[in-house]
Amino acid sequence: MTKANKRVAAALGMAVLFVAAVEGMLRLTGYDEPPDWVNNDGTPRPGEKYEQRNAYVDDYLSAATYNIVVVGGAWTYGLGLKTEDTYPAVLQDILLNEKSKPVRVANMASPNFTSEDTARVFPVGLARYKADLAVVWTGLTDAVPEDRRESFFARDPFSTRDDPRPSCRLCRFVSNVAWGWNRPTMPADDDESSARPTLLRYDKTQSALLAMGMAARHADVPVIFINYPTPAGQPLGHP
After folding, report:
1. pTM for the whole thing?
2. Which helix (H) or strand (E) holds 74?
3. What digits encode the pLDDT tens for the residues 24-33?
């Protein structure tokens, strides 16, 4: 082997060792690690798959309990949380100390539900649990551009999908720095002209909320609507 070849081989060997060292350092420091409850591609780990959120179906059939049905999307379901840490479960704990009879809060939310999906299951929940009160907290998925929903947690998180990102951490670091290729979470806060055409039309959200209000009225069940702003900071009902 000539001296030139030896130099090339030595340089390549040092480059490989350097890359391996950087890769090892990035892995040890947890660079671009997903949260504990999700896999690398953003899907929840098997142990987190759709815990039973309303474990007392039979108890709801008793008139001795005050029954609350809660519907909505990922935030109501409590994706990534233990059942006892979701807001419907906390609400039940609070009301148990306030009501003269036992309170049961049924969590019928699903991580991928839009307001239209929620409206479809709403009448079923009222009848199934003989609801005395309904709580609706929906609209987050509506505010996610449709072209981003395939990579956003609010869709069905357990359907299989490929992770488009490179597997090595050094490659991810380079791609994140060079192209901003990072784990998708919420859509960017774009200006109205670029973001609005991809959002679920506001009139659809309003129609779904109206349908749930009419269903609650028909069933003679009081309903509470909880609203939160879109990622752009505008209420869902904003024209």
Report:
1. 0.56
2. helix 74-77
3. 887 777 666 6
